[in-house]
Amino acid sequence: MGVISPGLIEVHDDGTIALIGGYSPTSGLHHFPRLDTCPYTGATDIETVTLSAEATLWAWTAVTAAPPGYTGPVPFGFGIVELEHERLRVITRLTEPDPAQLGFGQAMRLVADNVPGNDSEPLVTWAFEPRS
How many Cβ atoms sit within 10 Å of the Cβ of residue 120? Predict the structure, then answer.
């Protein structure tokens, strides 16, 4: 099973994943995905970091029509979460497709999600699910 895009996530032996981001000591800020320069200041002192898996839900919706080229199930949840440690907002898939089951400030956690690949082999990507 492949990864949706090398350098975005790290897949661990136990099936868990981590988002890979960047951190600039000059700006003191994190970003995702990792870039060679700080998107806030242009600094080039970027360190590769593993981002936190716990987040808070900021915005959400349901995607009810498949985007071009997407062959996975619909509806699916889509939203913005803020990573708790870094205070970084990430646009992401959500495992919960029903907007009525989600709420502002809801605790979320990073999980591995499999999506169809181009050659019928599933790809590992990320999503966030509600924490109980």
Answer: 7
Q: Which two tokens stand for residue 122?
A: 């599933």
Please give the Cα distance from 26 to 5 (Å, whole number).
28
Residue 1 in this model has a pLDDT that exceeds 60: no
Mean pLDDT score, 88-116: 94
- Looking at residue 125, its pLDDT comes to 85
SS3 content of the chain, % helix, strand, coil (to 5): 0, 50, 50
Q: Which residue has the tokens 């090398």?
A: 6
Rounded CA-CA distance 99/78 in Å is 9
Model pTM score: 0.90
Strand runs labelled E in the chain? 2-3, 9-11, 17-24, 29-31, 47-50, 54-63, 76-83, 88-94, 107-115, 123-130
